[in-house]
Amino acid sequence: MGNKVVLHQAKTSDLGLIEGMLYETASWLKSIGSKQWNGVLEGRDNHNTPQAIERGEVFYCTINDEPVGMFILWSNQSEWDAQLWGAEDSSEYFYLHRLNLVRKFSGQGIANEILAEIKAYSQKKGKSGVRLDCISSNAVLNKLYQSADFAFLKTIYDHDAGEQVADFNLYEYDCK
Question: Which GO terms describe its molecular function (predicted)?
Fold first, then answer.
């Protein structure tokens, strides 16, 4: 692409854009046989995106003013994060969720650029690190996170994700 990814903190007026990107990714996941994000297609929002936007935790990314992806960065653990990571009453880490690309931009290295921006933003905000989970069966995503210097920590086996019971890999990027 040759142009820089720019992060934007989503505003309430961006909700339609954000929901559109989530729906597109959920539809694509379903088309390849994945049960991940099926709730989005059924109108369930496990991440309460409107409130996350109000808290300043939802971001979208552009290249040349064109939206290319979005993600959620939580300063505090969700119930899901506490189940996987163990409960912590701290805002030391960001928890990365719902990272996705507009489909026409996949395979162009943009996800790595977005992850680089997330890491830089996290360092700027003084976080110790960025944590994320990834379904273990998705080799492409696991490779992406490892190539972006996220350290694999462990696998949580047979975790009930609501849409499916699956194994989840935990990754952490150290900002220090």
Answer: acyltransferase activity, transferring groups other than amino-acyl groups
